[in-house]
Amino acid sequence: MKKIGVVDTTFARVDMGAIAVDELKKQGTGFRIIRRTVPGIKDLPVECKKLIEEEGCDVVMALGMPGGEDIDKMCAHEASTGLIQAQLMTNTHIVEVFVHEDEAGDDRELLWLVDRRVREHAENAYLLAFDPDALIKKAGTGQRQGFPDEGPITTSRKKGDIKAGAEEKGEKAKKSGKSSRQKSGKSS
Amino acid sequence: MKKIGVVDTTFARVDMGAIAVDELKKQGTGFRIIRRTVPGIKDLPVECKKLIEEEGCDVVMALGMPGGEDIDKMCAHEASTGLIQAQLMTNTHIVEVFVHEDEAGDDRELLWLVDRRVREHAENAYLLAFDPDALIKKAGTGQRQGFPDEGPITTSRKKGDIKAGAEEKGEKAKKSGKSSRQKSGKSS
Amino acid sequence: MKKIGVVDTTFARVDMGAIAVDELKKQGTGFRIIRRTVPGIKDLPVECKKLIEEEGCDVVMALGMPGGEDIDKMCAHEASTGLIQAQLMTNTHIVEVFVHEDEAGDDRELLWLVDRRVREHAENAYLLAFDPDALIKKAGTGQRQGFPDEGPITTSRKKGDIKAGAEEKGEKAKKSGKSSRQKSGKSS
Amino acid sequence: MKKIGVVDTTFARVDMGAIAVDELKKQGTGFRIIRRTVPGIKDLPVECKKLIEEEGCDVVMALGMPGGEDIDKMCAHEASTGLIQAQLMTNTHIVEVFVHEDEAGDDRELLWLVDRRVREHAENAYLLAFDPDALIKKAGTGQRQGFPDEGPITTSRKKGDIKAGAEEKGEKAKKSGKSSRQKSGKSS
Amino acid sequence: MKKIGVVDTTFARVDMGAIAVDELKKQGTGFRIIRRTVPGIKDLPVECKKLIEEEGCDVVMALGMPGGEDIDKMCAHEASTGLIQAQLMTNTHIVEVFVHEDEAGDDRELLWLVDRRVREHAENAYLLAFDPDALIKKAGTGQRQGFPDEGPITTSRKKGDIKAGAEEKGEKAKKSGKSSRQKSGKSS
Fold first, then answer.
1. Chain C partners of A155 at a C-beta cutoff of 8 Å?
2. B187 vs C63: CA distance, rounded Å
3. Residue A133, min C-alpha distance to chain C (Å)
4. Which strand ranges, in their side-by-side order, compose the sheet holding C31-38?
């Protein structure tokens, strides 16, 4: 049975791990979830690596909420660099889900954003482990996690200077990409 | 018997290692503390790694006080990057405890901050080694080491747009998080 | 038979992988293409490494479209650093093809730029795997992928203070470098 | 017999290696010094690692004088990052001794600074290899290499809100830290 | 027989590899040169590592011409970081020779600068592989590659507060350092 790791922090102001676990269970069955919590985002890389190497996780979600100060941005940069290293050392995906405090105007929007982003990335983590080909179908469709998708660039349709195959797919993807989730999101 | 490593610097203006050792002893028993001191924070990564690989430490605290200049911030960044690498190379947690000189208004506050942060992270180090599940209970509760905890975001309670389980826990955690320590801290 | 890997993202707003696959097929035969899609550019390094180590790819194209914000530039930096690490860990080339959203004035130009850059780098990937000596012939000729080539510096011709051999080659390369592709590009 | 490595650069404007060798010999006996010179600071990491792995050095001093431009600061950052990596790969300390050209007002002060910093770090290198416990005694005493020591923070003495043990030691260390060397240094 | 690797880019606007090969041949005999060209500077690290590990090179020159934009400076930083990593992974020197486009006022000066810097670093590469002790003689003499050497700081001569040995050597080095090459360079 496959295993999906979930690691969050005590620093975050939302229980991101609980949201991730909830959403993963909605995505499908046939896997076991292993959850861990560390103090801050710089503690995530090693914990994710331990889940992969010591617990046998097939993919891990690394969840964190960096603050809005310069020092917080540097911490996030260091954590991200470490998460990429951990992936390279294990040949295993770690889906980084960071929500920066200054991405939202107030606590209410922040909470909404955290919930959306964690859930949409939980889907990504699930697909990476169970159905990677499903991601190819979304290639180049301007997916965003949390805020509404950007969608694919469509100007080209008039110009016709890139090949038809890519066009058609972009077209199709755009339609499906703008479905359920986005409607319930903020519109601006 | 488990071992906890403590490494600080001669550069720091407070004997951070002594505070860490004192607090660790208050956290519990059943472990041995191994202490080292290096010149500056950039010497921390290798010393921490040596404590793990040569002395068998199960977790290490890396203590430092970067100055307020740009060059000091760069040093702290380099040290942090190295500490994360050291963790990935050893699959062992190193709890970074840095207090930046410019975080406090004067020496008095700085001293207070160092003492608080070292002690709160000593608890984190202890939990990572002996009781990791205790950290899951604090997930997303906005813990801060030194200054008062931010606490979890609570706007959602009215909105009800994230699941109840997370809510309840955030609620509970917030209450317990605002206990003893925070009261004795600064209030603003 | 050689294998060329192609990895793009769901974040990009153009199906870069499809363009790469299309162009690679025009470059030659005798190889198999393996395509993958990941959520964002920070997921590229490990996927590229997996294609090399688990699928046996001889070269990989890593395709992405970083946004124009500061945070996006940091992501691109982290991804690039990881891609270089992945190459060093595998002794295999990964051709990074990033198109920054703010490189183009509007969607139309952006689409044009993506198409050009992906195709020109597909040629580079092909040459690295099949005909590395062909690249030596282009050494120092100011090649650019997407926008028109800069071409080699030619002031020296009048001065004669660098050796003749390099001169002749620069001369030759400049002529061939300014051929087909550039004419159809933008001229300023 | 232990070995101490010394690596400096042809870029520096002071023969830092000679100063280091001179000071190391004053620190004690029972070790052999191996000296190398590389072009610039970015060549230091690999040379230090070679001294450790190929020559068996127990500790290495990496000496350099980065210029004052932005590009020089970036070089110093890259070199520092590499030096930390080299230490992690070898479990061996490399004492980085960089003097930035813009740290001093004129050549005369720069020369003074280089001499002091190299000598004080030579002592650190010696202690790391031969007497690491001596460094614990200096923990948190605000040591600086070159300019006068900052000394430990002492406000706490009046407040009494950190434990007595640390206090006493800080007190003692401050006294001994402000000894011989500092008197002959600049006072502002 | 020793081997020296030379890697340059198609991005550069001068055939740097040809200059390097030409100069290396002037430095001496008894070695074989292996040349490669890659698209851009971020492709240099892995190619240099391949030359070391797959072709057995004893030292490699990595040649590139980063542009003057912010994004180019970031690329140069990433490439440099990778080159240092490649050296640490192989215990072999890679001499980075980067000429930033904005270092020169116009194409004519840029061409002059590239030629000088490549040739002076070719000498460094040769010395690292064949005569490392020759570099010790130049320690701390303010060598620059391309623009005139800074030379050693000499104020100390009057002060007499650093040891005589270093002084004499600085003196000697300064004289020989300001020889042939510098005269033909720019004087300001």
1. 106-108, 111
2. 49
3. 7
4. C31-38, C2-9, C59-64, C94-98
Q: Which residues of B touch A47 (CB under 8 A)?
A: 93
Q: Which helix (H) or strand (E) holds E62?
A: strand E59-64
- Residue D154's pLDDT is 80
Share of chain D above pLDDT 70, in %: 82
- pLDDT tens digits, E95-138: 999 999 999 999 999 999 999 999 999 999 999 999 999 999 99
Helices A16-27 and A107-130: crossing angle in degrees, nearest 10, is: 40
Burial environment of residue D105 by CB neighbours within 10 A (0 to 12, 13 to 18, 19 or more)? exposed
Helices (H), D14-131: 16-27, 44-53, 70-90, 107-130
Is E156 in contact with D111 (Cβ distance < 8 A)?
Answer: yes
- Partners of B13 on chain D (C-beta within 8 Å) are 140-142, 150-153
How close, in Å, is residue E114 to chain D by CA atoms? 17
Chain D contact set for E142 (CB, 8 A) = 11-13
Distance to chain C for A85, nearest Cα, Å: 7
How far apart are the C-alpha atoms of A118 and A18, rounded to whole Å?
Answer: 10
Instruction: Give the residue ranges of chain C where pLDDT is below 50.
Output: 156-188
Kindly determine whether residue D8 and residue E140, on different chains, have CB atoms separated by under 8 Å. Answer: yes
For residues B162 and B141, what is the distance between their CA atoms, to the nearest angstrom? Answer: 15
- Interface partners of A (3+ CB pairs, < 8 Å)? B, C
Q: What residue in C sits closest to A92 (Cα-Cα)? A: C46
Q: What is the CA radius of gyration of chain B?
A: 17
3-state SS record for chain A: CEEEEEEEECCCCCCHHHHHHHHHHHHCCCEEEEEEEECCHHHHHHHHHHHHHCCCCCEEEEEECCCCCHHHHHHHHHHHHHHHHHHHHHCCCEEEEECCHHHCCCHHHHHHHHHHHHHHHHHHHHHHHHCHHHHHCCCCCCCCCCCCCCCCCCCHHHHCCCCHHHHHHHHHHHHHHCCHHHHHCCCC
pLDDT band at D155 (very low <50, low <70, confident <90, very high): low
Q: Which residues of A touch B139 (CB under 8 A)?
A: 8-10, 12, 15-18, 37
Question: Cβ–Cβ of A22/B124 closer than 8 Å?
Answer: no
pLDDT tens by residue, B52-74:
999 999 999 999 999 989 999 99
Q: Do A153 and C13 touch (CB under 8 A)?
A: yes
Amino acid at the residue D27? Q
Q: How many residues does chain A have?
A: 188
Rounded-to-integer distance, Cα A75 and Cα C74, Å: 12
8 Å CB contact of C12 and A140 = yes
> What is the predicted pLDDT for the residue at E154?
80
The type of residue at A45 is P
Q: Do chains D and B touch (3 or more CB pairs under 8 A)?
A: yes
Physical contact, E and D (3 or more Cβ pairs within 8 A): yes
Q: Do C19 and A87 touch (CB under 8 A)?
A: no
Please judge whether B15 and D166 are an interchain contact, meaning their C-beta atoms are less than 8 angstroms apart. Answer: yes
Which residues of E are less than 8 Å from C85 in CB distance? Answer: 82, 85
The H-or-E segment that residue B21 falls in is helix B16-27
Per residue of chain B (188 residues), give pLDDT as tens: 999 999 999 999 999 999 999 999 999 999 999 999 999 999 999 999 999 999 999 999 999 999 989 999 999 999 999 999 999 999 999 999 999 999 999 999 999 999 999 999 999 999 999 999 999 999 999 999 999 999 999 864 443 344 433 333 333 333 333 333 333 333 33
- Residue B54: which residues within 8 A CB-CB, separation 6 or more? D91
Whether the pTM exceeds 0.90: the reply is no
Sorted by sequence, the CB contacts under 8 Å of residue B162 that are 6+ apart come out as A14, A19, A111, A115, B156
Tokens 């934009």, residue?
Answer: E69
